[in-house]
Design goal:
The chain is of the alpha+beta class and 184 residues long. It folds into 2 domains: 32 residues; 130 residues, Muramoyl-pentapeptide Carboxypeptidase, domain 2. Strands 1, 2, 3, 4 and 5 form a 5-stranded antiparallel β-sheet that branches. Strand 2 and strand 3 form a beta hairpin. Helix 2 packs across helix 4. The radius of gyration is 23 Å and the shape is elongated. The protein starts with a helix and ends in a 10-residue tail after the last helix. The site of zinc ion has 5 residues, from strand 2.
């Protein structure tokens, strides 16, 4: 008799606790989402570091071009369909809201030859210093705090550089945003 009552008390307590957790999760997510709009441009810190990178490479005799930076969720969805329902090769595994480009935290680059052509040749050594220009860009980008898509274990994205500021995709999707100041 006594154990039965104890058990029912315990069950009530558990149900209450679960209820409170559900309400807490629901309301916090709801308010965060409501107050955090999606960005519409590259994050100023990422923009600053990208500019620095382009400048530093120019000093080493490497001309790099930024082929893509901020991408809206709608633009991402169109890109996702490429190679799936529309013509071309698959270029991304991320749908709208799943790429750091959608949060203004990523850029894609290419190299530019002296003839003015954009190239994605990772062996090209235009400044003839014995190291591939592509990897020189990657090394400098990393020193500035970028993460390189070529280091990813699964879908390698060689032209891709990003900064997540320690935020996971789930956190970004929930509405969390990096809180960093630009240093001058
Ligand atoms: Zn990219």
């Amino acid at each position: 008799m006594k154990t039965k009552r104890l058990r029912s008390k315990f069950m009530t307590f558990c149900m209450l606790l679960i209820g409170l957790i559900v309400i807490y999760q629901y309301t916090t997510n709801y308010f965060v989402k409501k107050n955090t709009p999606m960005p519409t441009e590259l994050h100023p810190f990422v923009q600053e570091k990208t500019n620095q990178l382009v400048q530093m490479m120019a000093e080493k005799g490497i001309t790099m071009i930024i082929t893509d930076d901020f991408r809206s969720a709608e633009e991402q969805n169109i890109l996702y369909e490429k190679g799936r329902t529309t013509e071309g090769n698959i270029v991304t595994h991320a749908r709208g809201g799943e790429s750091l480009h959608n949060y203004g935290l990523a850029v894609d680059f290419a190299l530019k030859t002296t003839e003015g052509n954009a190239i994605w040749d990772m062996e090209f050594d235009g400044n003839a210093n014995g190291t591939s220009d592509w990897m020189e860009v990657v090394e400098t980008a990393k020193s500035l705090g970028f993460e390189w898509g070529g280091d990813w274990p699964q879908f390698k994205d060689y032209p891709h550089l990003q900064m997540d500021f320690g935020l996971s995709l789930a956190e970004l999707q929930r509405g969390e945003r990096p809180n960093v100041a630009i240093d001058h």
